[in-house]
Design goal:
The chain has 112 residues and is of the alpha/beta class. The chain has one domain: STAS domain (Transcription Regulator spoIIAA, 2-Layer Sandwich), CATH 3.30.750.24. The protein is 39% helix and 30% strand. The chain contains 4 helices and 6 strands; from the N terminus they run ββαββαβαβα. Strands 1, 2, 3, 4, 5 and 6 form a 6-stranded mixed beta sheet that branches. Helix 1 runs parallel beside helix 2. The chain is globular.
C-alpha cells in the first residue's frame, strides 16, 4: 500500500492506494495517526484509489476518526468507489463516517 500525504491549508489530506486490509491496516493507522497530534486536527481520507477494504481496514479508519474527534478535530472520507461504498453500507459504517463525493467537497466541508 502506498500512502500519499499532503497539507491543504490546515487539513491533512491522505490518499492511500491499493487494499486496506489486515495486512496493511496497521501501517495505515500508524502513519495516519502520526498526523493527528495537534489540537483540533482536520483529516480527509481520499479513498479514490482504494479498491478493497476489509473489517480490519474499517476498524483502522474508525480508530483514526475517534482519535481525531477526541482531540476536538474533524474527520471525513471522500472519493469512495461503489464497491467500497457497498461495504460501508452493509457494515453500517456509512452512518458513522462523514463521506463526501470528492476531494474538493471534502476540503470545503472541513473548512466550513
Amino acid at each position: 500500500m502506498d500512502i500519499q500525504k499532503e497539507r491543504v491549508g490546515d487539513i491533512h489530506v491522505v490518499t492511500p492506494e491499493g487494499r486496506l486490509d489486515g495486512i496493511y491496516s496497521g501501517a495505515f493507522a500508524k502513519e495516519v495517526g502520526e498526523l493527528i497530534t495537534e489540537a483540533s486536527p482536520k483529516v480527509l481520507i481520499d479513498f479514490a484509489n482504494i479498491d478493497f477494504v476489509t473489517s480490519a481496514g474499517l476498524r483502522a479508519v474508525l480508530l483514526l476518526m475517534r482519535k481525531a474527534q477526541a482531540s476536538g478535530g474533524m474527520f471525513a472520507l471522500c472519493g469512495v468507489n461503489p464497491q467500497v461504498r457497498e461495504v460501508l453500507d452493509i457494515s453500517g459504517f456509512a452512518g458513522i463516517f462523514t463521506v463526501h463525493s470528492g476531494r474538493a467537497e471534502g476540503i470545503a466541508a472541513l473548512n466550513a
